[in-house]
């Protein structure tokens, strides 16, 4: 009997089989390359740029985080204070840095608001950076001079409506988060208070204690001691939820201005284009550091509430934050000094 050759119908040619094999190998190579890239990182010191001068709470946070990161990564993490131009100097420096994971920025809320406030900013808060994680929210409180008749947010709103323009509120400077929070409050509560900008929290709080101004939105880290000594009265926290640091204080939203939500923040970003495996490694290490009981206690003492979300969640948060403050800045026609 004559043997019939095996049919080749439906069988790929040798060339096609070779091409498929190469494609499969290439597909496997991508995650393997990513793993290799992550395993090799870091091989030299990392520079953490901070847009504030030495000595403040943000500087303490950066150095504590840098020390812990250095221990986990096996390379020095050098904190580089680059204060100036409303944090634009540091943000621009990192936006232009090589996208290799060796330069990162401990950014603040001003990362997104500065381009709305200053005429010449060369970076884009969304497109120029690769978000790593939202490290913490900075606890801000609504504080008032204790000689004033209002003891809660609802009473403050009622007083301001009955006495338009009679109340002055201080801020740490035009365009700062304390100023924007005041404008958001005025808009949502439909009240009018006169804005008095100062150069920093110190002189603003001094005049608030003295009664030269009556109201202020400020960081709990700086105003808390005055509240504890009875020199100021704290009415509420600015975030949508109560703070981990001062859980006894109600929110502005629950005590007089529904929907009010203002959350100054600190987060870690890298230049856009930083390899995802590197971003993932930094994210993983920082989140693990933030879980340590020692760090949680230190953050609480600094007036910071730990967050530690994913890069994707942080990116979405930045976009929402920019949208919120763009409306406030445009509505109040605010320009930075």
TrEMBL record:
Xref: Gene3D superfamilies: Bordetella uptake gene, domain 1 (3.40.190.150), Periplasmic binding protein-like II (3.40.190.10)
One Pfam family matching this protein: TctC
Protein's UniProt keywords contain Nucleotide-binding: no
Span of the signal peptide: 1-36
Origin superkingdom: Bacteria
UniProt cross-references to SUPFAM superfamilies, sorted A to Z: Periplasmic binding protein-like II (SSF53850)
Keywords, in A-Z order: Signal
Family: Belongs to the UPF0065 (bug) family.
Protein name per Swiss-Prot or TrEMBL: Tripartite tricarboxylate transporter substrate binding protein
Record organism: Xenophilus arseniciresistens
Source species taxonomy: Bacteria, Pseudomonadati, Pseudomonadota, Betaproteobacteria, Burkholderiales
């Amino acid at each position: 009997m004559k043997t019939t050759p095996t049919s080749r119908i439906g069988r790929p040619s040798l060339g096609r089989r070779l091409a498929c094999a190469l494609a499969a190998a290439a597909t496997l190579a991508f995650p393997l390359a990513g793993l290799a890239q992550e395993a090799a990182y870091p091989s030299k010191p990392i520079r953490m740029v901070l847009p504030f001068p030495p000595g403040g709470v943000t500087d303490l946070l950066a150095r504590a985080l840098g020390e812990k990161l250095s221990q986990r990564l096996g390379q020095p993490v050098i904190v580089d204070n680059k204060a100036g131009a409303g944090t634009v100097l540091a943000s621009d420096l990192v936006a232009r840095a090589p996208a290799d994971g060796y330069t990162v920025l401990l950014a603040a809320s001003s990362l997104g608001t500065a381009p709305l406030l200053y005429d010449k900013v060369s970076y884009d808060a969304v497109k120029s950076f690769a978000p790593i994680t939202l490290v913490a929210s900075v606890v801000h409180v609504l504080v008032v001079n204790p000689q004033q008749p209002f003891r809660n947010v609802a009473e403050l709103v009622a007083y301001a409506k009955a006495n338009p323009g009679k109340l002055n509120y201080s801020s740490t400077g035009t365009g700062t988060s304390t100023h924007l929070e005041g404008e958001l409050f005025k808009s949502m509560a439909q009240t009018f208070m006169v804005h008095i900008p100062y150069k920093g929290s110190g002189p603003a709080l001094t005049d608030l204690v003295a009664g030269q101004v009556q109201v202020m939105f400020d960081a709990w880290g700086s105003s808390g001691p005055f509240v504890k000594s009875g020199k100021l009265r704290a009415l509420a926290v600015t975030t949508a939820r109560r703070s981990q640091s001062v859980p006894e204080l109600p929110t502005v939203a629950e005590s007089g201005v529904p929907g009010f939500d203002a959350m100054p923040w600190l987060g870690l970003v890298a230049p856009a284009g930083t390899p995802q495996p590197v971003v993932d490694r930094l994210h993983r290490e920082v989140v693990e550091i933030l879980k340590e009981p020692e760090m949680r206690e230190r953050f609480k003492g600094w007036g910071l509430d730990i967050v530690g979300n994913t890069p994707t969640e942080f990116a979405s948060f930045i976009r929402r934050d920019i949208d919120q403050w763009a409306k406030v800045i445009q509505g109040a026609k605010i320009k930075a000094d």
